[in-house]
Design brief:
six-stranded mixed barrel; alpha+beta; two-stranded antiparallel ribbon
């Protein structure tokens, strides 16, 4: 009987109930959209970071991160690559020879990282071949071809076929260099990355620098959830090899993408905390709204509750009746809000949110100008349960206010 009575009381004043439900639905949709937007930024940043900069795992000589010297090559590279070829977790891997140097045209000169890449394995790790705006991907034809970014091409006034000169220090400490011909111009989602990198054939840069080993191995796994475990496995294998033989692979460092980009890890934690703060602010505001609505509803029915108490209804049942009313409001509002949010975010996940007006600023952080919001199932459940619980708790205060009155006082209350 209490459930039926509570349901009828909820819809006694349809306009008032509809207003609070509308506020809850659009409020939840706004919270979910904001959470989806923030998750979309992080997801996009992670995707681009893994695609263009870190892969899932990278291997370097231990001291290379502190001092990227041309002589700090990976130890025991042949054994490592053999192990990667046999590992079932590995989707693809590539090795790179990296050199910090200068790139010069007839117009300007600037510092650059020269990436000597393997032409067959690099496209499996980095999608640079699909982001060439002009020209074509590197091949084995011609002498000293080079890929430059659109940003570098604009700064140095280059086009496909232009000549540039690369200079750097070789393994003996002498300055070396050669002329390269622009084979293609690429553009990625990160203007910072574009400004700092060029790509050449590994054989060309190794011959110039007299360095015939690699500075970096980038690894892509089938399952991102296995990254930490596989990183630890590689580190353990390197240590075991070092202890059981004369291999020097223990001088190598194995790092996953979070270790390579600690700032991204911090941002990920901050975004999660930000989502929780947004949710807390919303449910507090919503709770006060429900309390206000229930107080109005309860005080309008003061005489009615007085009669119920006078005819023998226990105060505990009256408390339960009011809490049931607030619970119904919570279920309807939270359920409708989550369903509306699912529909809205499903559409936006397909169409994306265009942010062309902020493209330049977003590209500086490596974020695409079209974002696809995403919200996990657990987030929907968290929002629904939190909103419902706050709705139920919001009914406690109005219930307390009415049951502390004596039946005679309540029946004498003027409407």
């Amino acid at each position: 009987m209490l459930v039926k009575l509570a349901w009828r009381n909820v819809w006694r004043n349809k306009l008032r109930t509809s207003i609070i439900l509308g506020a809850m639905i659009f409020g939840i949709a706004g919270v979910m959209l904001m959470m989806g937007f923030m998750n979309g930024i992080i997801d996009n940043l992670i995707k681009n970071t893994i695609q263009w900069q870190t892969s899932h795992i990278q291997i370097h000589q231990k001291n290379y991160a502190l001092n990227p010297d041309i002589n700090l090559v990976i130890d025991d590279e042949a054994e490592i690559t053999k192990q990667l070829e046999q590992a079932p977790q590995v989707k693809a891997w590539t090795s790179r020879t990296l050199v910090n140097g200068m790139i010069a045209s007839a117009r300007s000169t600037r510092g650059i990282q020269i990436n000597g890449i393997d032409l067959e394995s690099e496209p499996k790790i980095t999608p640079i071949a699909d982001h060439i705006l002009e020209g074509e991907w590197l091949d084995n034809k011609g002498r000293n071809p080079i890929l430059v970014s659109q940003k570098t091409a604009d700064r140095l006034k280059l086009r496909v076929g232009s000549k540039v000169v690369l200079t750097f220090t070789d393994i003996t400490g002498n300055v070396t260099g050669a002329a390269f011909r622009v084979r293609g111009i690429f553009k990625t989602s990160s203007s910072t990355f574009d400004d700092a990198n060029v790509y050449v054939r590994k054989s060309d840069i190794q011959q110039l620098g007299q360095v015939y080993h690699d500075h970096e191995i980038a690894i892509l796994l089938y399952d991102e959830a296995q990254v930490s475990a596989f990183r630890d496995q590689l580190s353990h294998d390197f240590s075991s090899n070092h202890s059981s033989s004369n291999h020097s692979s223990n001088n190598n460092s194995v790092q996953d993408w979070l270790q390579l980009q600690p700032l991204l890890s911090t941002m990920l934690s901050s975004m999660n905390a930000g989502n929780q703060v947004i949710l807390v602010i919303f449910v507090i505001a919503m709770g006060f709204g429900i309390i206000n609505i229930l107080l109005m509803s309860v005080f309008e029915r003061t005489r009615e509750f007085g009669v119920l108490m006078a005819v023998g209804m226990k105060k505990g049942n009256i408390r339960r009746l009011i809490i049931l009313e607030s619970g119904f409001i919570g279920i309807i509002g939270a359920g409708s809000g989550v369903i509306f949010s699912l529909f809205l975010l499903f559409i936006l996940s397909k169409t994306g949110i265009p942010l062309e007006a902020m493209a330049e600023g977003l590209n500086a952080f490596g974020i695409d100008s079209v974002l696809y919001p995403s919200v996990s199932f657990s987030d929907y459940v968290t929002v629904f349960v939190t909103v419902w619980c706050v709705s139920v708790l919001a009914g406690l205060y109005p219930a307390h206010q009415i049951i502390k009155k004596k039946p005679v006082e309540a029946m004498a209350e003027k409407q």
